[in-house]
Design a protein that fits this description.
Mean pLDDT: 89
Shape: globular
Number of helices: 11
Structural class: alpha/beta
Radius of gyration: 22 Å
Helix content: 40-55%
Number of strands: 15
């Protein structure tokens, strides 16, 4: 999938932008805070119907404005044009359209335009709680398995209702609680099977990518933890009615799953240096790309690299650029505060590219930088 043109109005600090993009490498260069990440976030929004930065609908609106529009024209593997547009007005439901036809459910759009983003915020995958790592699995699997996303929505709805019931003082409706148990068990089993299969297939890819980044002698691993490893989810939920009522929330279930990230047999959050952690995350996201490319073989995912070269030496930057410039990768978006190393390495790849100078939400293509 290739994003040919991107149009933005009133998205974060971007008042207006119209970009004609390279089908391979697009580099956005400028100082911090000028709008490079905001453009990548708009591209992300067109794939996932939400911001990558965890911001609410109101927060993506440009200051002083009460509406925004983001539109993208894509080229499909069949050389057909696909137009995706999103409109949002303060206080109203966002509108997503494919070729002019509005989606009734935003979940139906997820997976149409596969995408992987690597950004400084990904440090939370190591430093944050299990919810961050569950979200990582959700984002990956939902892009190729619609039944997973639908089951996840049903599970979370039942979990929310069950937790509300558990907070009731005094006796609770056991019949209603059991009904929520069954809903969660059915949806949870689908989620668990997908996550288990994902972990088994993904870990070897991750290990290979990590070694390719120049760290073959380090022992890294990803371990999927789940209550479902221990037995039947429905039986677990039913046996914990009393305990759950006492604490006021659901103690067992796939909403407590985790993807433990280890270095040398210990959690990397405690053992890894800053450089090792950054390499771990880079390998994780490149492995995510390779895995998605395999699972959605008819559409190459977009790859967004947001400020990942900070504090990396020139050789490591060159290694990453040469990697993503291969035929294994599709269209790439890169942000950086400096273009010197990027321009030199990218020119050597012989691939089509564009450089955009970014300043206060404005984007200007550099002269003589299109190949």
């Amino acid at each position: 999938m290739i994003l040919k043109t991107l149009s933005i109005l009133n998205y974060r600090n971007i008042e207006q932008a119209e970009l004609q993009l390279s089908p391979k490498l697009n580099c956005l260069v400028g100082q911090n805070g000028v709008g490079k990440t905001n453009l990548l976030d708009a591209v992300y929004y067109l794939s996932f119907c939400r911001s990558a930065l965890g911001q609410t609908n109101q927060q993506v609106l440009r200051h002083g404005e009460d509406w925004m529009v983001v539109q993208g024209t894509y080229l499909t593997p069949r050389d057909e044009e696909l137009k995706i547009s999103c409109g949002l007005k303060a206080g109203r439901r966002k509108s997503f359209k494919k070729n002019g036809k509005e989606y009734q459910k935003l979940s139906d759009h997820i997976g149409l335009i596969p995408l992987v983003m690597l950004s400084p915020q990904d440090s939370e995958l190591i430093l944050g709680g299990g919810d961050v790592r569950r979200r990582f699995m959700d984002v990956v699997i939902s892009q190729y398995a619609p039944e997973y996303l639908h089951s996840l929505i049903r599970y979370n709805q039942a979990l929310q209702q069950r937790n509300s019931l558990l907070k009731v003082e005094g006796s609770i409706d056991e019949g209603l609680l059991s009904a929520y148990d069954e809903q969660m068990a059915v949806a949870g089993q689908v989620i668990y099977e997908h996550r288990k299969r994902f972990a088994a297939d993904f870990v070897p890819i991750f290990s290979e990518v990590y070694a390719a980044l120049g760290n073959a002698d380090e022992d890294v691993s990803l371990i999927y933890r789940s209550h479902c490893h221990d037995g039947n989810l429905l039986e677990m939920l039913q046996s914990h009615h009393e305990k759950d009522h006492i604490v006021g929330y659901t103690l067992k279930g796939i909403h407590r799953d985790d993807l433990e990230m280890q270095l040398g047999g210990y959690p990397i959050r405690y053992e890894g240096s800053q450089g090792q952690s950054k390499t771990f995350l880079t390998a994780l996201k490149f492995a995510q790309y390779s895995y998605l490319r395999k699972m959605v073989s008819d559409r190459a995912p977009l790859l967004l690299l947001d400020d990942i070269f900070d504090k990396l030496d020139d050789e490591r930057v060159a290694r990453i650029i040469r990697l993503v410039a291969t035929e294994d990768y599709g269209q790439i978006f890169i942000t950086s505060t400096s273009s010197d190393t990027l321009r030199k390495v990218i020119a050597q790849t012989g691939k089509d590219y564009k450089f955009f100078l970014v300043s206060n939400g404005c984007y200007a293509i550099e002269d003589n930088e299109v190949r």
